[in-house]
Design brief:
569 residues, Nitrilase/N-carbamoyl-D-aminoacid amidohydrolase, Rossmann fold, six-stranded mixed β-sheet, 21 strands, elongated
């Protein structure tokens, strides 16, 4: 606490050094939530690189010092105190350097503010905290819960950087431009207010999660702000995976014309430079299309979840189907083939092709593949249950027993070899409940739980674009759980090309069954039957593994519905 007091009470008025040329660096880092020593070391390392590159200012993302989103860790006074101490460490370590540092951190709010902390950005120069600006617009929708924790900024003020009056904003503060959004979420526009004070430059430090088409939206929005106010806009964004969220980075510098003059990599740490006088900067190559970007996002999310949780190895049930094939590909990209083990667990109803196809995929990926038949185990279950099931015909109960046997075997392997289980269910299955609790839903991370089945095929085709990694037989076979003779997914569900648009409309956009049927020319009763499956399966989803979010509306913390409810719309 003493460190915090010394650092904050040493604030002084901004110096005016009227140097016209401003070379800035955008330090797009992947912090770990709560790893203050690791995050501080990373910030200092990137600062040294920025200084060596000739930058006079380096920007780090929102809450870079503690990681975003810290959630209820913010309720711990020791966490908040450590955040301030880390900022002091950065100030002391850069005291003799000519470069200025802007980084996001947590500050204590004054009594009466309503909450005990604020989401803030600090300008550190020559050992002093010269300026602190807190976030004004606190998002409280989808996955965002900032009003739960933070007090909003009471005011917005300009800071001085090399003689320039600068608008320093934090993420959502730049997402309320009235010329861009048809329906604004807030009555106040911090950027507009700061521009009225005479800002000549807009800086924005962000932790903006990725989902499909988000990069294009973000770029268009920031370009609209630059053109409207006729000043450069600099946005540095966090990169990396934090639980279900994936941050893409894709940091930007935009000229007053709206032209992008600098852009960092997507889904990787990066350091880029921009000359705000000459309006030039580094331009990194971007993923080819949104399918490529989604693969990169799933890879990054998987890698960071596994490693930030302290693991290095994973195990996957390889069934011979397309979903497990895609998850295996992503796992190898994320962790390396040497860290991926797959289990084939054939039952009496598994086709020989499923084992052959799985073996070929494992060879293509260079991963370990073990076969553990469940025939005898399944027979033992049936024998044990026969007396209490007497007089009843086999049904979905016996199908689920097979799935739950596999879940138990996966968890046994996980315990024995300290490997996280990656589940292989897709969003179509999770939506309709076409999955088994404590069976195929067992695991630590649902890698493709936000990817509809039809999109799974698209991603697999992207994987095979240059060479056949996923065997053609896997792509061409009709989807089947293989839990009874001749079973096909279409026995229980509409074809996925019909099902997925219904699910997207209902799950992601909350359209009514009547509207979905009318606009798409579908049978209303069929649509209602699908919707009923979605509503009846909420209890399963709330017990599912964490889902990597890659669409605007994913299952998990961003979609909250009661279980014990009677839904009529």
């Amino acid at each position: 606490m003493a460190c915090i007091r010394r650092c904050l009470t040493s604030q002084r008025p901004p110096r005016r050094c009227y140097t016209k040329r401003v070379k800035v660096a955008l330090a797009q880092i992947d912090p770990t939530i709560g790893d203050f020593s690791g995050n501080t070391a990373k910030i200092l390392a990137f600062t040294r690189r920025a200084q060596q590159g000739g930058a006079r200012l380096v920007l780090f993302p929102e809450l870079a010092i503690c990681g975003y989103p810290p959630a209820d860790l913010l309720e711990k006074p020791a966490f908040v105190a450590r955040c301030g101490e880390a900022l002091c460490e950065i100030a002391r370590a850069t005291a003799r350097d000519p470069i200025a540092v802007i980084a996001g951190y947590v500050t204590a709010a004054e009594p009466g503010a309503g909450k005990h902390v604020r989401n803030s950005a600090a300008l550190v120069r020559q050992g002093h905290v010269e300026f602190v600006q807190s976030k004004m617009l606190l998002p409280y929708y989808d996955v965002f819960d900032e009003q739960r924790y933070f007090a909003p900024a009471a005011r917005q003020s300009l800071c001085d950087i090399d003689g320039q009056p600068v608008a320093l904003t934090i993420c959502e503060d730049a997402w309320n431009d009235k010329s861009f959004w048809e329906n604004r979420l807030y009555t106040v526009d911090p950027v507009e207010e700061l521009m009225k004070q005479g800002a000549s430059l807009i800086l924005n430090i962000s932790a903006s999660p990725w989902w499909r088409d988000k990069r294009a939206l973000r770029k268009e929005m920031l370009a609209a702000i630059a053109k409207r106010h006729r000043v450069p806009v600099v946005m540095v964004n966090q990169v990396g995976g934090d639980d279900s969220l994936v941050f893409d980075g894709s940091s930007l510098v935009i000229a007053p014309s709206g032209e992008v003059i600098a852009q960092a990599k997507s889904f990787e740490e990066d350091l880029i430079f921009a000359d705000l006088d000459a309006l030039t900067g580094d331009m990194r190559e971007q993923p080819g299309d949104e399918d490529d970007a989604m693969l990169e996002a799933l890879t990054l999310g998987t890698r960071d979840y596994v490693r930030k949780c302290g693991f290095s190895k994973v195990v996957i049930a390889l069934s011979g189907g397309i979903d497990s094939a895609l998850v295996a590909v992503i796992a190898v990209r994320a962790l390396g083939a040497e860290n991926v083990t797959t289990l084939g667990m054939p039952s009496p109803y598994s086709s020989p092709g499923s084992i052959d196809d799985s073996l070929q995929l494992a060879k293509n990926l260079g991963i370990r593949y073990e076969v553990v038949p469940i025939d005898e185990i399944f027979g033992g279950f049936n024998h044990a249950l026969a007396p209490v099931f007497a007089g009843r015909q086999p049904d979905i109960t016996e199908e689920n027993v097979q799935s739950r046997i596999r879940g138990a075997l996966l968890m046994a392997f996980s315990n024995k070899f300290n490997a996280l289980v990656l589940t292989t269910g897709n969003k179509s299955e999770m939506s309709t409940g076409y999955c088994t609790l404590y069976g195929d839903m067992v695991g630590a991370l649902a890698v493709i739980g936000d990817v509809f089945k039809t999109r799974v095929y698209d991603l697999c085709r992207s994987v095979n674009r240059e060479r056949e990694v996923i065997p053609r037989a896997i792509l061409e076979k009709p989807p089947s759980a293989e839990l009874r003779p001749g079973q096909k997914d279409t026995d229980s569900l509409p074809p996925y090309e019909v099902l997925d648009p219904i699910l997207e409309a209902y799950v992601e956009h909350y359209e009514s069954p009547e509207n979905i049927a009318a606009e798409r020319g579908l049978d209303l009763e069929m649509v209602r039957a699908v919707v009923k499956m979605v509503e009846r399966s909420e209890y399963k989803r709330q017990q599912a593994a964490l889902v990597l979010k890659v669409t605007p509306k994913a299952f998990g913390m961003g979609r909250r519905f009661p279980i014990a409810a009677k839904v009529q719309v």
